[in-house]
Fold this sequence. Notes:
Elements: E1 7-9, H1 11-17, H2 25-28, H3 31-41, E2 46-51, H4 61-71, E3 75-78, H5 80-83, H6 89-95, H7 98-113, H8 117-141, E4 145-146, E5 152-153
Helix pairs in contact: 4-7, 4-8
Amino acid sequence: MRGVDEVHIGLNDLHLEMKCRFMFQPLADGHVDRMAALLRDAQIPFGIGGVARVGEGLLPAELLLAEHARLGSTAAILSRTFHRQARSVHEIEAQMDFSDEVRKLREAYRAHCAAEPAVLESQHARVRAIVEQIVAKAAATGSGNTTATGNANG
């Protein structure tokens, strides 16, 4: 992968391209595992998806951060769920203590990085179960793609 310094795996675009019902399906079904393995083998730093606030999201941020640790991800973006669709720094500052929310994410990530592999695999099983449940619910209701906030898009 000459000339590639870093990669971000965008789960929203990926799930839409793959025609998945939920944006975390590629994370749960092994697609992201295979991408991460290629990037680790090539020693290219990478990040995955967007992260909500600790304690929030259809797939809770803590579980997503466990996946980051399990896969070797070193970067993430803050999701629309994290900043509540704020349009400016002023709006973000008015609705939260930004530094404290980022600190919580970093602490959760560090805790997962220090966890035993068996613990991370257990968390991955939880991720798969939650994603399967969300996908089954979307299929049963006939809804289209479901975002991390639970909204249907088409």
